[in-house]
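Quarterly update from the structural biology core.
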Amino acid sequence: ISILKLGLRLLYAPMKLFKTKNQIVYLSRQRNEKGIDIQLLEKAIEAENSGVKQVFRLKMIDDGILSKIKYCFYVIGDMYYLATSKVAIVDTYSITVSCLKHKKNLTIIQMWHALGATKKFGLQCLGTKEGREESVAKAMCMHKNYDYVLAPSTATAKFYMEAFGVDNSKIVICPMPRVDYITDGNSKAAEFYYQNPAAGHKRLVLYLPTFRDRAPYIAQMLKTEFEGMDDYQLIISEHPLSN
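Predicted structure, tokenized:
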């Protein structure tokens, strides 16, 4: 890990000589395309100031050695855009954001990908069965360098402080952009039933597993339990990073 960090820092140092642009860079390992939050934020920023360039560095780390090697080269591109942007927005942990020393004029915002704090996450679950080891998290500077962390409410702000190791001065109460989409007054039910006509006369049961090792096992148990229950429709929406 020390060699990795040293290599990244040596590569990054000359990049910081590049001129800073009127630019925002988004970094995500959650998906390979723009999710609803990034789409809405992009549109809002474009309407507010069309002169701001928005760059999207969205890349999941796939399984396999070859994919991980390719991702290492992708990280070099991330560093270039961090070195030339005024603002960086991340929705998960980013190696380049947390492990590198950035220009003072770069503002880094953590816009965590979940709607709220329904489980322990980030630094809260270090040392637990399904969390990172504390020594690894420390070596990888996990969740360092944030200027602002967006929290959905004052009630959950303390959990976001714990998860990202920041004090209240860095917390901004600001729900995810998709909340505007959910609460825009337009019912999504008609669209759902159009796409799923067989569910129209059934009681819906929705399972939204988080990113944990047991999620596939629990999903399979639920499928077995609901077999033959014709009055119910089981819907399982996997976590984006789940296999």
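The radius of gyration is 20 Å.
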